[in-house]
Amino acid sequence: MKNKSGLRHDISFFNFVRERKPVAIIILLLILLFAAGSILFIIRTIHVLQKTTVSNEAPAVQLVPDQQLLLPDDRIIKETPPLTRTSNGTWTKTEAEQWFTAPDKATLDKLEKSNDKIADDITGAAP
Fold first, then answer.
1. Phi first, then psi: what are they for 2, rounded to 5°?
2. What is the dihedral of CA 105, 109, 112, 117, to 10 degrees?
3. N or C, which end of the chain has less CB nearby within 10 Å?
4. pTM exceeds 0.85
């Protein structure tokens, strides 16, 4: 049946399948693949969630020691490390030689150029 514009408007599902069988089969296969993929995704998600839940039950295997537990010597435990360190505020000559390495001239020049560049970037075209 055609309307005023000449187009058919009585297209039904069965007419579509009969007239365009390959297209209908492809659409049906895509719908089935989507449904199967969705089901597999849901099953996999549920399986992973069940695996990650923490149970409060005791483990099935109890560990039994086969040797006597060895404790550290008492003298080691009694010696506690100092919690704070007192310092004089200045290094002695031996501490300075041990811990401080004086930078060379090239390193100081490089640092000076880097600092000058930073200062120039900050001030920019300021008068």
1. -110, 145
2. -170
3. C
4. no
CA-CA-CA-CA dihedral for 44, 50, 53, 57, to nearest 10: -150
Q: Are 25 and 33 spatial neighbours (Cβ–Cβ below 8 Å)?
A: no
Q: Residues with Cβ < 8 Å from 91, sequence gap 6 or more? A: 99, 100
